[in-house]
Amino acid sequence: MEESIQNGRNYLSKYLSFVRSKGRYTFTLDELREQFNASGTSINQSLGRLKAKNEVAQIRKGFYVLIPPEYSSQGMLPPYLFLDDLMKSLNKHYYLALLSAAALWGAAHQQPMEFFLLVESPAPRSVKTKKLKLKFIGRKEWVSEGIVLHKTQSGYMSVSSPELTALDLCAYAEIFGINRVVTVLQELVQNIKPIALEKVARLYSNTTAIQRLGYLLDSVFSEEKLANALWKVLSERKFYPVPLSSQKEKKGETQSRWKVIKNMEIESDL
């Protein structure tokens, strides 16, 4: 098979068709150099022609995706089909997170054009082009609890569970603002289970996020069982007053149970 590919005029196109026939959407420059006895210049010229025809797209230096005809008008493969391969090429633990994960769990009202991934620190440089936006957020303390495998057309990718997604949304609320977080949680909360929430929270080091989520579940959504699951965890920790929004002054009434300073009025988009 390899000899016939190498001897053909369109050796690269033929090889990439072979790659796709194996159920793969991705390949690397190192792979091509190893596969063919061809100069880097020759390979790059061939890749350039394929990119011009929207048959191939470069995601990062040395990492490419194949674009089947059904996606040629977009000029990009949906990230769900290549994220796992990309992160394996970078040798990084990761999971699809925040609004991107919430959309998979049914909270699609606020689905962003940008894909958010939490990764082992140090985080790779984020990808931002006209056709693709991947935001990498580094996490120093890596805990696998709450990370699940989500099946895709190309295999599987790591995604935060509804419980971990909710905690992360409160931990990184400054990225979106509390009102947007509340809007997402309104749709996400129906998929959160008390036992799973407590299990994830016990290994979640960000106590402030637990306080904020507990406050929202308790005071905004009236989800008593979910709030109590978080309280079991929080009551065993030392915690201090924290503002509901870290982007505003720490002025306002402090809710006695969760010690959350209500320094803003919550307005949901739903």
Global shape: elongated
Number of strands: 12
Q: Give the ordered list of helices and strands.
A: HHEHHEEHEHEEEEEHHHHHHEEE
Instruction: Quickly name the level 1 CATH class of the largest domain.
Output: Alpha Beta
Q: Could you give the order of strands across the largest sheet? A: 4-5-7-6
CATH-defined fold name of the largest domain: Beta Polymerase, domain 2
Count of domain modules: 2
Unreliable segments of 5+ consecutive residues: 1-9
- Share of residues in strands: 15-25%
End-to-end gap: 56 Å
Rounded radius of gyration (Å): 22 Å
**Class computed from helices, strands and strand pairing:** alpha+beta
Mean pLDDT: 90
By DSSP (H or I, 4+ residues per run), the number of helices equals: 12
Helix content: 40-55%
Main sheet record? 4 strands, mixed
- Which architecture of the largest domain would the CATH scheme give at its second level? 2-Layer Sandwich
